[in-house]
Structures are given as structure tokens and as C-alpha cells.
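$ fold --in a.seq
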Amino acid sequence: IGMLPKHLLENENLNTSSFNQNPIGTGPYKFVKWKKGEYVEFKANEHFYLDKVKTPRLIIKHIFDPSIASAQLKNGKIDAALIDVSLLNIFKNDENFGILREKSADYRALMFNFDNEFLKDLKVRQALNYAVDKESIVKNLLHDYAFVANHPLERSWANSKNFKIYKYDPKKAEDLLVSAGFKKNKDGNFEKDGKILEFEIWAMSNDPLRVSLAGILQSEFRKIGVVSKVVAKPAGSFDYSKVDSFLIGWGSPLDPDFHTFRVFKSSQDSALNDEGWNFGHYHDKKVDIALQKARNTSNLEERKKYYKDFIDALYKNPPFIFLAYLDFALVYNKDLKGIKTRILGHHGVGFTWNVYEWSK
């Protein structure tokens, strides 16, 4: 639990305060040093309430290149890392390393921007959902370290066991576009009122998976006659709420409210609320009602019912193309003992949840 002393922070901006770079807490480790872009160093908290910390010193490195992370693990410069599944063969036959498959609540999706003249059309969004072969993405891009995503709560206690899905059906996708008033031109591309159905797919260039997903989606859309352009720029260099569509990632093993209310509720539209994460400007009354009711009660059975209503409403009026839930490969030096698995969060957050029990 993070500690926020009132006498130090009451009149401070939490985002810019020096306290942010020298935090205190109640966990198994004390903060020692943060070298930006390189590593964070910790030492054992001798007052930790659960047990004696088995590893007295902990360094968490920031390694953004998957190949470098793999090389450092192989060369003994680090003891454990989440390794890109495309690089697992380096470790599979090496008796010095163990591999744990870590399940996660982390999903990838294509977010539609409802300010776009084409993407605000329900039939267009439904058509694009039917145009994507998600099973192929899981098998060929993600090497089966994933499963097909259909909504944002499939790794939650709030998951509905009975929900509709957009099954891959390019013919149905084209039929929906025709019913929406689009016709194919001589080049085989859909257009309406003289305007070609086209839009941009934005992805963060420093996330290879999202860039790859953007390329696959572009190809899938092209097959049904929809033109799209992939734009890859560094994270933080563009406004997610101002682009046509965006390869987004969300998900958490914690309470479902955390990653649904601020993402899908209309009051959380980032154009209206600086604290909102609804970057696509999605507004749906049924979604709003379901999320508000789920937030207003602590009764789990009632909340499950409201989240079922939420899931059904998302299907009828899709804000995203949900693509896949990711699994992560935790590769570790076999001298390292005490690692335990559990459902991870976004970007694999949480794999060090019991790090105080790790030892060499």
C-alpha cells in the first residue's frame, strides 16, 4: 500500500512532487534508487509484516527490447524475465532455465473513434468485427500463448458464461456494408456517396505486437474491400483520442469496475473528463446503466447480472474489436526458487507478486 503523508503532500502536485521518486510503503522492500530508463533498486524491509524477506536486495531492470532481455537472461545478467514467446526456443532445451506460462487478464483490441464519419456507423463496426480471423491471430502470431477475446471480462469473476460473439465471417461483413449503403468500386473497395471507406490504424511503434496486429488487421480489412493505413508512432507522441482507430490494451485481475467504468462509460469520455479513459468517445445508454448499477452495489450476484447486461450491450454496439487475451512466458534461472503463478495484469504486471519468497 502506498503511503501519502498529508503533512508533506497536501499542497503538492502528486505528478511532479519529488516524493514520487522516493516513495515509502508497507511492502516487503524499501526503495533505494531509481535510475530512469535503466533500473529501480530495493532493499529488504526488516519490518515487513508477513515474513522475513528471503532476497535482501532486488533490482528491477527496464529492458524494452525483447532480444536484449533474452540475451541478458541467457548470459546470467538477470535472473528472471517475461520473454517474448517468439524467443522461447532459446531456452526450451536449456536445462539451466525454467519456463512458466502465466495467464493474464491483459487483452488487445482495436478501439474505434466515434468521431470518425465511417466508424460511428454501427454496421461498419459490426462488419469490421466479422472481418477478423481471431483464431488465426492466436495461432500464427501469438503461438497459442493467448486465447480469442470477445469482451473485457473473460478473466474475471464477472465473466458471463453465455454471451454472443463475432465469429469470423467475411461474407457477412461485406453484406453488412452493402446494407449500410456502401458499394464496391472498380478497384474492389467499398465507397459511399463518392467517398472510399478508409481510415487509419494507429499503434505504438515501441510495442512490436501492436504494430504486428495493426498490419494483420489492415490485411483482413483489405480482403473485404476496406482500405486502411497503419500509422506507428512512439507511445506518448500522439493523442489516442484524436486518431481514427488505435491498438489498445486493457485488463486487470482486480475488481471489474477498475477497467470498465473509466473505459466505456460515456461520462468518462476523455473529451469531457480529463480523468476518463474513454478515448474513443463511446456513448451507450445501456452500457452506462449497467456499469453504474454494478458500481452501486456490493452484492456479487447482482453485480454479475449487471456485468452480463454490460457484456450484451457491448456486443450490440461494439466500441472495439476484441482480439486476444495474452499469456506470458516467465523464464527464470533454475537456481531461483519460490516463484508462484497467478493471473497477471496489463503488460504482465504482477509476476513478482511473491518476490519476497524468492531465493537463490
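$ fold --in b.seq
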Amino acid sequence: VVDKAGCIIAVLAGKPRDDNWDAVMTKLTAQIKDARGSMTFSKKQENHKRGKFPSVAVGTLFGRGSKRPGTMAFYGVANCAILVSLIASSGFRRLVGFANSIFQCFAANMFGLYNKNPNNIFASNPRLTRWFNGVFFNLGPCTVTWPHTDCHNLAFGWCAITALGNFDTDCGRHMILWDLGLVIRFPPGSTILIPSALLTHSNVPIQPGEEHYSIIQYPSSGLFRWVYNSFQSDKDFMATATPEMKTGKCTGVVIQC
């Protein structure tokens, strides 16, 4: 998907050319379904601005009151073990590899930034557990999102959305990009990359008896601000910055001593 200037703003990646892909994604879907049945969820995880379905996150986070980057809360030892098992599964690793290859192909500079930023964070704090920038597991079993933007994501960044489950692709689950007036067919096992902080998006409901789960790989904007501010919060940066540094921050120019 390109804008009027010909710049790529979204990628309908689909599936890799692999005869075994559907079987791998079916197994990953079964693992997610089992995980949902074994986990416990907070009210905030079950009812949020994206919809009414359990959604859990794995990764590194900064913001929302934290003083430095840290690991997202798991809400229990059992939940932690289940999520660690999911991200260690071969199906999830293959999915991440596919999304990364598409990302690098269509937005090489942004992909480089996504790699460099967490590397800088983990190098500055060896005690921090190395995770992804961020991953949401939307655990359904009927994941229907309301129109929303993801305001805590990097504004110009892409997130990779993968649909999983058992549903009739022609009768439901289409992705809607409201600002672009697009309704996109989205089969199970397929991936789409969009700037989710900028584009209002949602998905069409599925039919009774069907199941839909999704995996969202996303960039938390707070982590980029932390590195941009020389490993400190906006508040701490502004408290000690010179007028020139403050001007540079407002104009997007990095000035470091």
C-alpha cells in the first residue's frame, strides 16, 4: 500500500512460499488455545480499548510511570512459564523470522532502527532480560477489535499483525483501515504490516463457532525516547538539557555533549 507520493505505508505480506506453513501455523494456533485455557487474566487484560478479549504482552517496556525500561508484568509465575513456552516454540520463531524478512525487505532503514534501539538499551543495562520490543497475544477465542490506534507505539513505526484461527476468510475477519477506506481479506497464517499508531484499524467479526487469535509485534515508543534522551526519561532530560539540546529535541535534531 503506497501513498500519493509513492511511499510504502503498509505491506500485505500474506504467507511465505512454504507448503508446510499452514500446518506450522495450525500447531501454533493450538498452542495459543491451550495457553488461553491455562492462564489467568486481569480485568484490564480482558477488557481494553482494542476490544473484549484476553490480550497479554511479552517484551520490554518503558513509560506509564516506570523509571527505567523493564520487563512487562506477567501477572503470575504460571502465566510467565506459559508465555515463555509460546515464544520459544518453533512456530512462533518461524513467524517472527518471516515478519522480520518482510520488514527488512520493504523498510530496511526502519528495520535497522528497530534492531539498533534495543541493542543500545540492553548494552546499557546488562541486568535487563532481553525480549522482543513487544509482542501482544490476542487470545480470543473470538478476537474482534474495535476501531483504534495504538498510541503508545512508535508514531512512524510498523507493527506486524498475524491472523490465526479457524474461520471462513470470505465471510469475516477482514482488516479495515478506516483512514484509507480499505477492507482487506486476511486469511489465517497471513501477516500485514501497518503503522498502527497512525492508522485507525479494526477487524470484521467472524461467524458463530469460528475461532480467531492474533499475534502483534510492535515497537513501544517509550523505548525509543529513552535512547533518544541519552538513556533517561523526558522529564529528566528536560530538567538538565541546555536550551540548544531542548531546541534539538523539538526539531528532531539530536545534540549530545
